[in-house]
Amino acid sequence: MEALMHVGFRVYSDSINPSSRFKSCKSPSILMEGRRTNLTCIRAQQPGTKEGSVSATAFSGSSDSLVEELKTKDWEIKALKDEIAATQGIRIRRRPPTGPPLHYVGPFEFRLQNEGNTPRNILEEIVWNKDTEVTRMKEKASIYSLKKALENAPPPRDFLGALKASYVRTGLPALIAEVKKASPSRGVLREDFHPVEVAQAYEKGGAACLSVLTDAKYFQGSFENLEAIRSAGVKCPLLCKEFIVDAWQLYYARTKGADGVLLIAAVLPDLDIKYMLKICKMIGLTALVEVHDENEMDRMLAIDGIELIGINNRNLETFEVDISNTKKLLEGKRGETIRQKDILVVGESGLFTPADIAYVQEAGVKAILVGESIVKQKDPTEGIRQLFGKDILG
Ligand SMILES: O=P(O)(O)OC[C@@H](O)[C@@H](O)c1c[nH]c2ccccc12
């Protein structure tokens, strides 16, 4: 590996010449491969427009070179973000790698890890598609309109509180029951799929919370399902099961009635997790932060303010499921830190039997996230009874 010695941001306060249409700021300052480099970014501002709203139309006259320069900076920043993610052990690249823009003369020797624009695994493919999808959705609803829509959104309910209450009441891991029609690994799980009926059956069976898949392309889910379940009067708090790659999606999920969202550590660098946690707090969403391996767990344990961690037994890159993953990540010092920080742990995926539940409970989880084994049953209420080996309503 090339010697990536240190990557650090130093964002200087803008040196603004009020009479100028262009602001110049130095950011970031980077020591890469032993060399310190300062990027100079140009931000175009037309009189009367909001700062930071860069648009090619803002340039006139000698616009071509400035547009080129902006494209280059944009590329550099994206490439830099992937570099930072890689230093945190994140293998998922947020976008297909692209070479530098034509005539690139920038200071970086970015390594292109995959010249072909093919995703390396299913999670990467999902994330690349999500990025495109979100870009399109953002064109239809600006962040400003979403913020406004928050005022009329159904009020957030206490997702974490519902899990804790259920655990105290039953002495068993609280159930987050997943409304899931299909998945890339298992195909269609329930042919005759009526999301509201499934949700109501879960509630009747004693689920503490529900998880509703909203990704359409890979899971045949939708935000309509989420909205319909919420407006049908289901009382269980709802997790919006999405691949979050942009803070915009948090606002969107909240306007559709979500009480919680999933943040996947394999996809989001630490800075994004911290930023998104803040937004979640601000708008009343509970964040379920998902990890799959030791590195992701350690990264998340180093971040303050995480109250809910899900350990996914399914490797989203290979689809392999192994429930001993939950145990492995809760052993020793990690388990101790989790107890000290009073983090509630959710065991996710691949849970089918009372023995599975007992195994992950023994490992230290106080909640479980279950889809396949209960959504496949003709009567999902009965599916819950079978999963626990008893009635959990009592
Ligand atoms: O159907 P299962 O094996 O019971 O798994 C449910 C849930 O854990 C799984 O759907 C899941 C966990 N994390 C995810 C992230 C994205 C999509 C799906 C998931």
TrEMBL record:
Residue ranges constituting the Indole-3-glycerol phosphate synthase domain according to the UniProt record: 123-387
Gene3D superfamilies to which the protein is assigned, alphabetical: Aldolase class I (3.20.20.70)
Recorded metabolic or biological pathway in which this protein acts: Amino-acid biosynthesis; L-tryptophan biosynthesis; L-tryptophan from chorismate: step 4/5
Catalyzed chemical reaction(s): 1-(2-carboxyphenylamino)-1-deoxy-D-ribulose 5-phosphate + H(+) = (1S,2R)-1-C-(indol-3-yl)glycerol 3-phosphate + CO2 + H2O
Matching InterPro entries: Aldolase_TIM, Indole-3-glycerol_P_synth, Indole-3-glycerol_P_synth_dom, Indole-3-GlycerolPSynthase_CS, RibuloseP-bd_barrel
A Pfam family annotated for this UniProt entry: IGPS
Name listed for the protein in its UniProt record: indole-3-glycerol-phosphate synthase
Record organism: Tagetes erecta
